[in-house]
Structure formats: C-alpha cells, structure tokens
Specification:
Length: 146
C-alpha cells in the first residue's frame, strides 16, 4: 500500500514492540510516514506541537496507534485529552494494546476510541492485523477534513 502522504503516530514505550511494528509495516508493504512517541507525554507534545516538538508545523497524523500502558501519561489519559480537544478530536485513534481487560476496552470506548485491537502474539498474525488497520484507516476510511 502506497502512502499518498499518509502519516501514523505510533505511541509505544516498548522498544521491541516499536521495532516489531515498524518491521511489520515494512514487510506488509505499507509505505507511510511513521512517527514514534515513547510515552504519553511525548505523544501529547507531538500532537500539540509543544515540548521538544515546539514549532512542529506538519498537520495531524492520519492515524494514532496508541498503547495503553505508557509511562508519564497513560494511554487512557492521552486518548481522553485528544478526544476532548477541538484540534485533535477527529483524529482516528486505534488502541493497540496487549490488554484483554474488559475495563480497559470499556474505558477506551467511553473516551471515544475509534477502535480497540488486542496485539497478537504471533508475528504473522501481527502483520495481518497491521495491514488490516492500515488498509482500513489509510485507504478505505473517508476521514473528515482536518
């Protein structure tokens, strides 16, 4: 899948999971810009052009893949802040987490997550999931204008 200028923000604190995701995208032929935030605070700084991203001029990503268990600011709090802010409320946010806890899914959807996907353990399945997410959110979905 060609990017057509599409961009993803991956919010993930585990370096192995970051590498696995980047490899998965590459092996599936998903060509898009991928920025990585290593904790919830960094994700907020990136999206609101503050902190070390002060002055970042590029617009919003086309998709945020958000882990829940993050240092500094939890994924749930990142989600809530993004959906409560007019500048970011329309950005699609897919929770991509190992958590299979009902309370995590419930809270994510109450905070207006666009989707909740449990990370597969098997790498081949992991790649299939990444491809499906990218195909849907970056190709099939018709987003509102930002």
């Amino acid at each position: 899948m060609k990017s057509n200028g599409k961009r993803i923000l991956l919010v993930e604190d585990d370096p192995d999971a970051v590498e696995l995701t980047l490899i998965g995208f590459r092996e599936c032929g998903i060509e898009c810009g991928i920025a990585v935030a290593l904790d919830g605070s960094e994700a907020l700084d990136y999206l609101f052009s503050s902190g070390k991203f002060n002055g970042r001029r590029r617009g919003m990503p086309d998709l945020v893949l958000l882990d829940l268990n993050l240092p500094k600011v939890s994924g749930h709090e990142v989600l809530k802040r993004l959906k409560d802010d007019k500048r970011t409320e329309e950005v699609p946010i897919v929770i991509f987490s190992v958590s299979n806890e009902e309370r995590d899914r419930d809270l994510a959807y109450r905070n207006r997550a666009n989707s909740y996907i449990r990370k597969p353990v098997d790498f081949e399945r992991y790649k299939e999931v990444l491809k499906g997410v990218a195909d849907y959110w970056l190709s099939l979905n018709e987003p509102p204008p930002f």
